[in-house]
Input
Amino acid sequence: MIEQTSELSSQKTIETAPKDIVIDIKELRKVYKVGGEKVVALNKIDLLIYRGEICCILGTSGSGKSTLLNMMAGLEKPTKGTIQIKDQAMEKMSEKQLAIFRQKYIGFIFQSYNLLPALTALENVAMPLIFRRFNKSRREKIAKKYLEMVGLKERYKHKPSQMSGGQQQRVGIARAFVGSPEIIFADEPTGNLDTKTSIEVMHIMWKMAREKNQTIVIVTHDPEVALYADKVIHIRDGDIQSIEVRDGNDVYEKYIKPYEENYVEI
Amino acid sequence: MSSFDLAVMGLKNLLRRKARTILTVLGVLIGTASIVVMVSLGLGMNKAFEQQLESYGSLTMIDVYANNYYVEGQTNSDGQVYLDDDTINAIEGIDNVEFAIGFKRFDSKIYAGKYESYTSIKAVDFDKLALMGIKLSEGTLPTGEFKNEVLFGFYAKNYFYDPKSRNPYQSPPVIDVFNTKLEMLPTSQYYEGKRPKGFILNVTGVTSELDYNYANDVFMDYDTFLKLKNDFERKNKTTDQNNGGDTGPKGSKGSTTKENKYDEMKVSVNDIKYVQDVQDQIKAMGYEAYSLTDALENMKQTSGLIQAILGGIGAVSLFVAAIGITNTMVMSIYERTKEIGVMKVIGAQLKDIKRLFLFEAAMIGLFGGILGIGLSFGISLIINSVLSGMNGNTGYYGPAILSDIPAWLALSGMGFSTVIGLVAGYYPAVRATKLSALEAIRTE
Ligand SMILES: Nc1ncnc2c1ncn2[C@@H]1O[C@H](COP(=O)(O)OP(=O)(O)OP(=O)(O)O)[C@@H](O)[C@H]1O
Ligand SMILES: [Mg+2]
Output
């Protein structure tokens, strides 16, 4: 494993190749007030994420990972600092603008899957397309394609309650990717899954993101998950401790290819 | 999100919570039914009033009189007006007036065999009389086909008596006016023994018993009657003993003095809503004008008040139903906090969420409204059949319809309940859009 631990300040000099910056975070700070007390969830975060990167935010519980992700997804407003995604300042957007922005550019994968229990797998996957005003036949065609990609071809009509956790998360992944968003956020996508299933899920996400050069930001406390990332952001107590950058081809050679050889069918 | 998808999603959501949806719909149903039934009673009352007034006379008719009864002979007085053909032309020139018709009462006697009757003849233009829509119980309106045609008021038949009988007014004879030879003398003069020859009348029809307006009249064409009268007076050289003292334009032809050719006029207006306006214009011309709209106006105000009170009682229950809708939707939001949050995160727009909740609330209102209208029709039917049944037994002749649900009431009942649903759902809908997506994700 090639470990390129680098200081934040020198990050830009290391990344010499001209890449598109997708997410640009500067001096981000988030303080919660609980009662009269202040809880500093994020202290001072500076971070650049490039197009097509598969990033992991790795840290212990309470380190501020979810807080960081939620602010990137526009679900929370920072106390201080700026988040630019695709050159747009997230912290300045209204709720309405954020909703439009999310629909256009962002997919989201949840730890507890968060499928709508009344809907079938197919309907769940097609949901983001409903909001984009795709007609029924068109969105079902696309949704089927994505369900097939995550290996759930036979389960279109199944309700979430009729599926295992791993299967539900695969539906969740299909739903996040179905609109081909440029960025996908995932908060502990393997948090409720066993190791074998976690690997399966990571594999699927990796493959799908690479296919369309999509950017993924995954929050996890599991170092095994972080093995799949091009960039691992270590977080502790609201600060970035270090950033690990790897060559994507190495990740493929080491983790993806052997997996595919062992498990031909998913 | 397209409206169609939104509707499908909203309906699915309502069906998912069947029990609660049904109970909430039930509330709206009762609210709508009570408001509609209350208003229908008010409307039924209105209709009953109108029917009652209609039996007094047509609501679109204005009665016109000259104002100069007491200034008779005072030829140069200002503002003196007369009822003559010029007046008819002038009134027919007013907007929305269909026609104006003049009447003049002439004293006359009618003989039927041994019976006689001091029935005055109402002289009128028969062509115009045809426009009045007088209902008949027998025969036809005068056609001009026969000589000396008359139209008999149904009650005028009963005025005949036998002058030679000891008690002439007891048990009046039933005269079959169509098959009895009726002879008319255009005078009220009393003849002892031999009387001059009169004119044979041809009765074409008898007015309907349902309409008291023309009950006592015997109509005859104005020109025909004048001719008969002139004939009669020339032959008999009677000194004129008409009570009115006013013998029409007979003696004064060619003179510049105006006279009342008619003593009464009726003006027909094409719509009840213009009656007041036309009436005011006629009054402005210096005539006396009366119509039933005066009474109608009064009555409308009263019934409007009663309707408002009844409607208010219904509105209270609909208001309670509206609170029910709000309550249901707020509960629904609590239950669906997570779902709403997830939808927001995966691309729902704020207006999608808002419209979804508004739609669901509106649907509860609409369903409740539709079922409520159905129930109202049922209740209305029961009220009408029970009460009209009661009328039948007591022999009371009154309006059969006590509760009236016209189409507009049914439709506006549904519309109103839908709007109530929208209003009741507005607060929950706005609240749903304000739910933090983050809270939604965290709730576990
Ligand atoms: N809404 C909130 N109100 C108050 N404090 C909060 C809130 N959300 C997070 N925190 C605090 O901020 C800190 C960071 O929380 P965060 O959820 O980002 O941690 P995390 O790294 O995602 O942990 P985990 O791995 O357990 O999910 C914690 O100390 C937490 O208590
Ligand atoms: Mg977390």
Residues A 32, 34, 39, 41, 59, 61-67, 221 surround adenosine-5'-triphosphate (ligand 1) (CB under 6 Å).
